[in-house]
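ARCHIVE RECORD
Type: protein–small molecule complex
Small molecule: adenosine-5'-triphosphate
Source of inputs: curated submission
Record status: active
Notes field left blank by submitter.
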Amino acid sequence: MTAMDAMVECRDVWKSYGAQPVLHGISFRAMPGKNLCILGASGGGKTTLLKVLFGAHRPERGAVCIDGTDIARLPEHELDLVRRKFGVMFQGGALLNSLTVAENIALPLQQHTKLDDDTIQTMVKIKLHQVDLLQAADKLPSDLSGGMLKRASVARALALDPKILFYDEPESGLDPIATSRVDQLINQMRDTMGITNIVVTHTLESVRRIADHVLLLDQGRVLLDGTVEDLLASTNPRVRRFRTGELEAEEGTGARAQGYYKDLLM
Ligand SMILES: Nc1ncnc2c1ncn2[C@@H]1O[C@H](COP(=O)(O)OP(=O)(O)OP(=O)(O)O)[C@@H](O)[C@H]1O
Ligand SMILES: [Mg+2]
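STRUCTURE (tokenized, with ligand):
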């Protein structure tokens, strides 16, 4: 791979649920070792795009290249090999509640490698250390704070040493301090391990802290593909209405109040 090759690339990706079209010809590139933030009003297709990127949904049309392999029409057993290249942090964390934090992180290593138990225990400790959670190894997920849960999910996503991490709203439900800690962790993954982070987020402070690149989705189309500065400077009327929160108020679920995006301008 040369320095200019994308780690993740979509070309003209279309995806519907039944008769409802959701993604209308999405194209973009995410470069290796960079943070890409995916933004947009609620219902605009962000989670759907993420699911297409990690192969949970197949697009009807278009190419989805992960580290040079087009996964859009790859047979399931070959897709499993590509899945080894990335980790996923779902909303809510999705750790198994009956297992300790350490056991949760050991699980992908037990399922996908032939490593002996001692090696797995050592690797689990390394992952926990990377997210600053060694002290919580033997706790159950239900005994962790929201921020610790998110970090534990990142540790599990790191288990198989991925090149790419996908996150769906990693800051949801966290207070500003825990949010800032998750953002630091996302940057640390990029800076110390060269991981490519693809982050769906609504938290503008986070966008400012982590984004090398921003993709703004609007009703299943790419409205803006550029830097945070491009987002702030754009004179496109819909981008302007997104910035002021009007698009969210009109088309979103209402969960994100009007003016939510105003702090980007400050
Ligand atoms: N599994 C599904 N089956 C049918 N329709 C779906 C499914 N998942 C999402 N949709 C629909 O697709 C559209 C896009 O949903 P998606 O979850 O991708 O939006 P989003 O941008 O992630 O929104 P939010 O910011 O609220 O998370 C919505 O109209 C939603 O109702
Ligand atoms: Mg979503």
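CURATOR ANNOTATION: The first helix runs from residue 46 to 53.
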